[in-house]
Amino acid sequence: QVQLVESGGGLVQAGGSLRLSCAASGTTLSISGINTIGWYRQAPGKQRELVATITRLGSTRNYADSVKGRFTISRDNAKNTVDLQMNSLKPEDTSNYYCNARTYGGSNYWGKGTLVTVSL
């Protein structure tokens, strides 16, 4: 089992920045089995959508078109964390942001989410 805990959400004005962090915990075996980890978001009344993901060695980063050039995902395997630096935030970025981890074995884990609100 893998537990994911997000932090860093909050209220920010449009054009501002926030940094989200996700800490993964569990057994050494379960943590070492994480392949892709990243962030999704879901606004009220909308489907959950991918924001950014990163593979274990950081060789592949995947971003939603809507955040390319503004958001940067990074991963620290020694600390078992994944961060999302969000710059030039827009009101349409307002959402609950969820950390997601997928293992080599096909298991899929979610955090409880952190709310990001971007005001005009």
The structure class reads mainly beta
How many β-strand stretches? 11
Biggest β-sheet description: 7 strands, mixed
Mean pLDDT, to the nearest integer, reads 95
Strand content: over 45%
Note poorly predicted spans: none
Count of DSSP H/I helices: 1
Q: What is the radius of gyration computed over CA atoms, rounded to a whole number of angstroms?
A: 14 Å
Helix content: under 10%
What gross morphology would you assign? globular
SSE string, helix = H, strand = E? EEEHEEEEEEEE
How far is the N terminus from the C terminus?
40 Å
Task: Describe the structure in your own words.
The chain is globular and about 45 Å long. The protein is built from one helix and eleven strands. The strands form two sheets. Strands 2, 4, 5, 6, 9, 10 and 11 form a seven-stranded mixed beta sheet that branches. By secondary structure, it is mainly beta. It has one helix at 28-32, and strands at residues 2-7, 10-13, 18-26, 34-42, 49-54, 61-63, 71-76, 81-86, 95-103, 108-110, 114-119. The mean pLDDT is 95.
